[in-house]
């Protein structure tokens, strides 16, 4: 293998080989013989080389990283930035006949994202053909088994390898540079075979973050002072680390660019997402992963994942590279759909995650006693030592080799099996099927009663009686009616499905299914499609297992949210169809704009618009920006033959109003009633609001997601930092302050909060962002702002601010002495709960009477004194999706509070009503609050 840190070497040194007995730990992976690198011992002696690969791309005429950057990739104290990397990619593309550079979109800050397509020159000459084979096999529809086998033999394995998603994880993006150079210059037999059998898609994932982090690190001339722990902003605009939680929503530009390549353009069978850092006392975590296993995807995904994982570990061991761990070595699981490598499982592809150690500043492998004893999940421990950046790059290249060697030796199987899984999904969608979930197993045990026995089993007849209950069948499809209250929001949900490759159809005329008639323009998503696992995961509740560390013990901490059903979070109305059905539909070709709304009536007094569509907030902001008056009707309002729920927008007619309303009807999908007379009843006059969105030095992801939502709905706002809060006189600049879910720590003393750099250590432009929100300095200024007529809105765990300001609010999840309940008594680590909403109150205008909210270690409230609960958890708490222990502790408690505080409002939104921009149903509580508090204060 060519060492990436030795660019002058034209030929790879011999691989270090180990006897086959070193593979004994992984016996049981039946396909390992096909992928094992032990076969490489014989490869150099092969008389025939793959004819398709000519040795035309030699190191002698390919610019090396040393020549391009002045140092080797992986040199201590050096990072290459994205500007340099982009220029190098273009240089390589002009020099090598093994590479094609393709633009795939723009980043959030306007940089170009690329994939470097690397393969043999002959393969590159026929990319369209191999891309079409990959597409047809992945989608499976209309492809017979005989055709699939022929295409698998004819096609090429498509392998995606990326780096840099989390930009402060600096090994992966730098290793990607070394990888591209390696595969453009390698001439060893293994490499030539891989280039003949596979098409490699090398992808830098976070251009903006790589530029930020590399420049910040290299800004100090003294190498010993170089660091990036003190970067002032998130390393991806808006979302930072949460860029790897956006894959099923696909809100960010970068995510959408990548998803298009995965599920609409290239359909790779293996997707390898490089990350760091490794668990303490190891070098790298690699697959396979720990349970829980998500019951929605095809088991063949996990079987193949285990094969590839075995090949990865074996490669390192054979090369004498210790320190790789798996499964119990870290917390990574395969349950949640939101990560880059995990969304692939729901699309029948193998998603790989590695977490490696390393830093451009030399670091240490720590001595962890238990990690010095070899075991199945850590077969070759590593000794404590000083660790250099180049070592991590070298490990990364070896792991890439393992993956690509596996893909080459198993090319036909990978291609055929992605078809097989897609066809399995189509077949299941065309017949009655039952997914076996944890709740189903619990029902089976309950049905067995005292006869249940873990060793002898239970009555076999219970299998059909309980697990095949006709009422528990999987849906054959879903119908999203066109006449729902917020169709544009439903379209936004469907666009997320389309971005991730799901087939969506639109009804060309009215149709009837199961006795219900649906209007033309309704949407149909059938489960008889290759990506059925993803469809089910987006519509159906997640039924997470009761995962304890040991029987009767505390819960095992899940890797991420346990319940996240996107259709529920977005408040989409849909019907589950359990029987086979047909409808007059046409395929939706691409992401959609909302269908145009309509204006009913011809009155000239003004327009009434229902409060339910969230796009109404965009209209309100446009009108206020133009100086046009907007009102909320406090009671029900008649508009011709329609009765609008409380909160209807009343827009008096005027020359400035008309074009804005008409554009909103046309472009935002809103329906308006043109009325002849102004409506009666009380109303609230909205005013242009000056929003302060509180953030911190280094950036808050929750605040960033909130910022993105405010921008999408066209709210004017300013980002506010603690120093400005501490300065007081807040009413001069703001009407309302918003504190996102992670902005108020449990301990508001400065000493307890995260460290920040010294002012003189950072550029002057960022020094005003330093500081902490503290009880002593900040809270009195916020309190004075609210008492003087301002509004504060807290989201999620930032409810702590209300208590700090003296509000009579009790968290029902605290003991009498103020401590949090034990996790054995209460534990909801990201799940969807149902709330009862009083939508006659202004804060809840437009909300359904029962609304799903995302609950992630949040609170339920009891309050004394003035104020009103706006939403509450029902007496019998209902978990709509996910895992909850002790949910009844929330019984009857308040979820949302509207509290007067002096002359202002303190609005406490207990759940995370934004949740990574997924909670489109509950976000209306935030949007209402931004208008309501200032409007009421102005009236009073």
List low-pLDDT spans: 1-57
Which range does the strand content fall in?
A: 15-25%
Label the structural class: alpha+beta
State the end-to-end distance.
Answer: 75 Å
Mean pLDDT: 93
Gross geometry:
globular
Helical element count? 27
Write down the Rg: 29 Å
Fraction of helical residues: 25-40%
Main beta sheet: strand number and arrangement?
A: 10 strands, mixed
Total beta strand runs: 37
Structural features, described:
The chain is of the alpha+beta class and 940 residues long. Helices cover 30% and strands 17% of the residues. The protein is built from 27 helices and 37 strands. Strands 26, 27, 28, 29, 31, 32, 34, 35, 36 and 37 form a ten-stranded mixed beta sheet that branches. Strands 1-2-4-3-5-8-6-7 form an eight-stranded mixed beta sheet. Strands 18-24-19-23-20-25 form a six-stranded mixed beta sheet. 52% of the residues are buried.
Short description:
The chain is α+β, with helices and mostly antiparallel strands.
Write the layout of secondary structure elements.
Blueprint: H1 32-35, H2 40-43, H3 65-69, H4 82-95, E1 99-106, E2 112-118, H5 121-125, H6 127-139, H7 145-154, E3 157-163, H8 171-185, H9 189-197, E4 198-204, H10 207-218, H11 253-265, E5 270-275, E6 284-285, H12 299-318, E7 324-325, H13 340-343, E8 350-356, E9 363-365, E10 385-387, H14 389-409, H15 411-429, H16 438-448, H17 461-467, E11 477-480, H18 487-499, E12 505-507, E13 511-513, E14 516-518, E15 523-526, H19 532-539, H20 566-569, E16 575-577, E17 585-587, E18 599-600, E19 606-609, H21 616-625, E20 631-633, E21 637-639, E22 642-644, E23 649-652, H22 657-667, E24 672-675, E25 683-685, E26 691-694, H23 701-712, E27 717-720, H24 722-727, E28 736-739, H25 778-787, E29 791-795, H26 800-804, E30 809-811, E31 829-837, E32 850-856, E33 861-863, E34 868-872, E35 879-881, E36 894-901, E37 904-909, H27 923-939
Parallel strand pairs: 3-4, 3-5, 5-8, 6-7, 18-24, 26-27, 26-28, 28-29, 29-37
Antiparallel strand pairs: 1-2, 2-4, 6-8, 9-10, 11-15, 11-16, 12-15, 12-17, 13-14, 19-23, 19-24, 20-23, 20-25, 21-22, 30-33, 31-32, 31-34, 31-35, 34-36, 36-37
Helix pairs in contact: 6-15, 7-15, 8-14, 9-14, 12-14, 16-17, 21-22
């Amino acid at each position: 293998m060519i060492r990436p840190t030795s660019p002058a070497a034209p030929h790879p040194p011999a691989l270090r080989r180990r006897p086959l007995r070193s593979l004994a730990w992984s016996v049981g992976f039946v396909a390992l013989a096909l992928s094992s690198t032990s076969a490489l011992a014989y490869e150099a002696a092969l008389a025939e080389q793959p004819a398709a690969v000519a040795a035309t791309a030699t190191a002698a005429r390919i610019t090396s990283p040393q020549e391009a950057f002045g140092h080797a990739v992986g040199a201590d104290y050096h990072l290459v930035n994205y500007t340099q990397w982009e220029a190098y990619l273009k240089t390589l593309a002009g020099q090598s006949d093994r590479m094609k550079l393709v633009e795939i979109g723009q980043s959030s800050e306007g940089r170009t994202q690329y994939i470097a397509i690397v393969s043999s020159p002959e393969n590159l000459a026929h990319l369209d053909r191999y891309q079409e084979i990959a597409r047809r096999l992945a989608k499976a529809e209309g492809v017979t088994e005989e055709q699939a086998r022929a295409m698998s033999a004819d096609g090429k394995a498509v392998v995606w390898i990326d780096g840099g998603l989390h930009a402060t994880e600096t090994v992966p993006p730098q290793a990607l540079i070394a990888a591209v150079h390696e595969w453009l210059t390698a001439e060893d037999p293994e490499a030539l075979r891989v280039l003949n059998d596979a098409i490699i898609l090398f992808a830098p994932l976070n251009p903006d973050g790589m530029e930020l982090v590399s420049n910040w690190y290299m800004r100090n001339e003294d190498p010993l002072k170089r660091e990036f722990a003190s970067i002032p902003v998130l390393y991806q605009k808006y979302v930072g680390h949460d860029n790897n939680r956006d894959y099923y929503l696909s809100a960010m530009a970068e995510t959408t660019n990548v998803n298009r390549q995965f599920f609409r353009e290239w359909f790779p069978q293996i997707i390898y997402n490089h990350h760091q850092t490794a668990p303490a006392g190891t070098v790298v975590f690699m697959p396979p992963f720990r349970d829980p296993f998500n019951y929605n995807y095809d088991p063949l995904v996990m079987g193949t994942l285990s094969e590839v994982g075995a090949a990865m570990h074996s490669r390192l061991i054979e090369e004498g590279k210790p320190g790789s761990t798996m499964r119990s070595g870290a917390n990574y699981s395969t349950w949640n759909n939101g990560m880059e490598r995990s969304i692939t499982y729901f699309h029948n592809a193998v998603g790989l995650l590695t977490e490696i150690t390393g830093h451009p500043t030399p670091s240490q492998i720590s001595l962890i006693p238990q990690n010095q004893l070899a075991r199945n999940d850590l077969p070759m421990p590593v000794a404590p030592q000083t660790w250099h950046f180049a070592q991590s790059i070298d490990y990364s290249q070896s792991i890439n080799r393992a993956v690509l060697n596996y893909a080459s030796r198993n090319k036909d199987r990978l291609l055929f099996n992605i078809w097989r899984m897609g066809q399995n999904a189509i077949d299941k969608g065309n017949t009655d099927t039952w997914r076996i979930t944890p709740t189903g197993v619990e029902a089976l045990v309950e049905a067995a009663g005292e006869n249940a026995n873990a060793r002898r089993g239970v009555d076999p007849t219970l299998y059909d009686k309980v697990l095949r209950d006709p009422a528990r069948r999987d849906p054959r499809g879903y119908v999203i009616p066109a006449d729902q209250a917020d169709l544009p929001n439903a379209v936004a949900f469907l666009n997320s499905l389309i971005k991730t490759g799901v087939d969506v159809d639109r009804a060309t005329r009215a149709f009837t299914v199961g006795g219900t008639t649906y209007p033309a323009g309704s949407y149909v998503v059938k489960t008889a499609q290759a990506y059925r696992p993803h469809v089910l995961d987006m519509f159906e509740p997640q039924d997470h297992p009761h995962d304890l560390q040991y029987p009767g013990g505390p819960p095992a901490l899940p890797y991420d949210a346990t319940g996240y059903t996107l259709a529920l979070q977005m408040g989409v109305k849909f019907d589950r169809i359990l029987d086979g059905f047909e409808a007059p539909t046409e395929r939706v070709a691409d992401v959609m704009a909302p269908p145009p709304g309509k204006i009913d009536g011809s009155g000239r007094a003004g327009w009434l618009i229902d409060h339910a569509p969230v796009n109404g907030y965009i209209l309100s902001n446009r009108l206020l920006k133009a100086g046009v008056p907007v009102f909320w009707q406090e009671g029900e309002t008649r508009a011709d033959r329609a009765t609008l729920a409380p909160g209807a927008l009343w827009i008096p007619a005027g020359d400035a109003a008309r074009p804005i309303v008409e554009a909103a009807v046309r472009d935002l999908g809103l329906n308006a009633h043109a009325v002849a007379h102004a409506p009666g009843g009380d109303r609230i006059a909205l005013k242009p609001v000056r929003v302060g969105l509180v953030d911190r030095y280094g950036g808050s992801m929750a605040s960033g997601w909130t910022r993105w939502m405010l921008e999408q709905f066209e709210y004017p706002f300013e980002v506010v930092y603690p120093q400005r809060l501490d300065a007081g006189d807040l009413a001069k600049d703001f009407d309302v302050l918003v504190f996102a879910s992670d902005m108020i720590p449990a301990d508001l003393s400065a000493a307890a909060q995260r460290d920040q750099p010294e002012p003189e250590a950072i550029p002057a432009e960022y020094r005003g962002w330093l500081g902490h929100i503290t009880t002593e300095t900040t809270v009195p200024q916020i309190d004075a702002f609210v008492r003087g007529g301002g509004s504060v809105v807290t989201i999620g765990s930032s409810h702590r601010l209300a208590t700090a300001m003296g509000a009579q609010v009790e968290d029902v999840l605290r003991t009498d002495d103020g401590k949090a309940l034990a996790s054995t008594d209460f534990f909801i680590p990201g799940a969807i709960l149902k709330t009862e909403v009083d939508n006659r109150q202004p804060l809840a205008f437009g909300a359904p009477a029962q609304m799903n909210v995302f609950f992630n270690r949040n609170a339920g409230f009891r309050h004394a004194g003035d104020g009103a609960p706006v939403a509450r958890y029902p007496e019998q708490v209902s978990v709509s999706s996910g895992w909850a222990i002790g949910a009844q502790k929330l019984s009857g408690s308040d979820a949302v509070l509207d509290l007067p505080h002096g002359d202002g409002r303190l609005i406490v939104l207990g759940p995370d009503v934004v949740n990574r921009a997924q909670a489109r149903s509950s976000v209306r509580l935030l949007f209402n609050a931004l208008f309501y508090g200032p409007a009421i204060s102005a009236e009073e």
